[in-house]
Amino acid sequence: MNMKRSAVGVQDLLFMQRALDLAAVAAKMGEVPVGAVVVYRGQVVGEGANSCIRNFDPTAHAEILALKAASSAVGNYRIPEAELFVTLEPCTMCAGAMVHARIKRLIFAATDSRTGAICSCCKTLDAEYHNHSVAWSHGLLADESSNLLKSFFRERR
To answer: Which residues pair with 44 in a beta bridge?
Structure first.
């Protein structure tokens, strides 16, 4: 068991629901439906929805966009009190960005058996060589997130 796991609170449901709303917006734009929300001191300070195709940018993942917006809002690229809510398990790029931003806690909905870098394909945040530890948990609204992703890809086949 990962000792860095974090407990999920009641208010977390509202933040994850907002991330799901953003994922639905991404789907309507033809993007893989992933949404992310950064919460700092109880307030949403950054949001993002996948925009790789629309922005011609392989780094325009929901998490990266939300972290950029949050850093700008807070006025610092390090936001150690912040929590990141995302609808799909982050990839290695996004996990690395969380470490650099000093995110306190990650909460993600569905796991990603293909590129998930938190607990599925690898355990990036559990690496002992990082100079910052990010607590994490998953499963909150996982069925809703998974259903949105399945529906999106079913329509494209």
So the answer is: 39
pLDDT for 111 equals 97
In sequence order, what DSSP letters do the residues of 88-124 get, joined into one string? E---HHHHHHHHHHT-SEEEEEE--TTT-TTTTS--G
Region at 139 (left for phi over 0; alpha for psi -120 to 50; beta for the rest): left
Express as a percent the part of the chain with pLDDT over 70.
95
Catalytic pick from 31, 47, 63, 89?
Answer: 63
Q: With the CA atoms of 65, 54, 18 and 143 taken in that order, what torsion angle do they form, in degrees rounded to the nearest 10? A: -110
Give every CB contact of residue 124 below 8 A, 6+ residues apart in sequence.
Answer: 92, 95, 96, 117, 118
Active site includes 144?
Answer: no
Contact 85, 44 (CB under 8 A): no
The mean pLDDT value for 25-38 works out to: 98
Query: Quick one: pLDDT at residue 3?
Result: 39
In this structure, the number of other CB atoms found within 10 A of the CB of residue 99 comes to: 16
